[in-house]
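Quick one: structure for this chain?
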Amino acid sequence: MAGLATTLGSGAMTNAIGELLGAEVILIFGSNPTEAHPVIGAQIRQARKRGAKLIVVDPRVIDLAHEAEIHLKVKPGTNVALLNALMNVIITEDLLDKEYVENRTEGFDELWSVVKGYTPEKVGPICNLDPEDIKAVARLYASGDPASIVYCLGVTEHSTGTTGVMSIANLALLCGNVGKVSGGVNPLRGQNNVQGACDMGAMPTDFSGYQKVANPEVIAKFEKAWGVELSNKPGLTSPQVFDAIAEGDIRFLYIMGENPMVTDPNLHFVEEMLKKVEFLVVQDIFLNETTELADVVLPATCFAEKEGTFTNTERRVQRIRKAVSAPGESRHDWEIVSQVMERLGLKNNFTSAKEVMDEVASLTPSYGGYSYERLDREQPQWPCPDKDHPGTPTLHVGKFARGERAIFKPSEYKPSAELPTEDFPLILSTGRMLYHYHSTTMTGRTEGIMNIAGEAYVEISPEDAIKAGIADGDRVKVSSPRGEIEATARVTEKLSKGVIYMPMHWPDGAVNWLTSSHVDPITHTPEYKVCAAKVAKA
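Got it. Here's what it folds into:
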């Protein structure tokens, strides 16, 4: 993992989207790109038409599963066990890239000491998979030259999400697919400009460009640029913020462009904390479920009403330009933040978004080559350290972020933090759908979309539906140890027995009233993909 820290730590793709067209094998792991990332989904379909072979690993029969050579209908929460089994087969059957492993990696012995115990015969029952199918996937992935891995929240939104990502990196390294055109490890970001937000330091450990707040040289550079004294202590992640409110350590909360009253786990706790905090400010383009609890709402402009940049999932920095005038008293995000800073006694001289970008380039090595003038002509991918640099479509070519060699970081399988019980015998997993974006703050205002996808639903297997006396189209109660919601039942063969699935979008019937507060211990990403649940006829 350390060898891929620049990209996997930031969630960025190691390769360009267009490189998928040159892959011989594409392994889609915990991702539903034709619905959640339709542009990339279309690229994958084009790659298949050009001869690429698809492997899908997902608890549901997603659209691309019908086009795949093999679909592994993995049990939610068992990704690490499966990945270890794939590596077990590749090593025992001598399918690894020996020259690459010898010359460009270290830690192979440690990897083998872990994965040698994960035979397909042992892992099959854990993952509810046929051992022969596990072997077939390992052989097919190892045969690809190059082979690309595409993954998304089905890997990261677990209490073992970090070890899942590291295991995917191990698999790619084992077959020599990192630093190779049309190969790589390619996570798809969950929302528009998540990549750009992370790049700009919207994480508690980093300044822009993943410069660590604990690094004295970094602190000194930003103190000199901004003329203020800065803390070298990492801040809090989103789940930690709500815990700190509970402890009385946070009394003021500023939420910008986020709707946690739909999107955060265990909404009972979130609602309690948002009501407990003494002063809540929400900055957003529309009123939503979170603004209802706010003391002050600051109206911001949407993408079509402002100048700026977005950075997409392949690290490509793209200009946006004002198309229409902003309504009412709404203002640009940077203007609002600047004025709040000034009222706190922190002067800045910004008069435009362009000037903000110029400062970003001056303080962020990976963005050093960007300017509005250049982005009007081209959109290179970072790292792009200076104005003459062409950008970097493929990362880790010839050298890794940590040096000449990447390091294997093996992990033992650990079950999910919350497992089914006698009272809650099903695994509830959550996800997204094609028609809606995130918490429906925008798409929920579109009549045509709501006519197509206007209500919460739960997918359930025929076996579980018969057992619960539920028919397709019934109104049902979905419950977990945290409460219950109502939804419409969709009885489907997409799921295995014992697993139910709900999209997360609708405030009415929000599934996050049910999800747990368990998080990954390293990233604090909530375990949206596994919680104990039951379904009964309403």
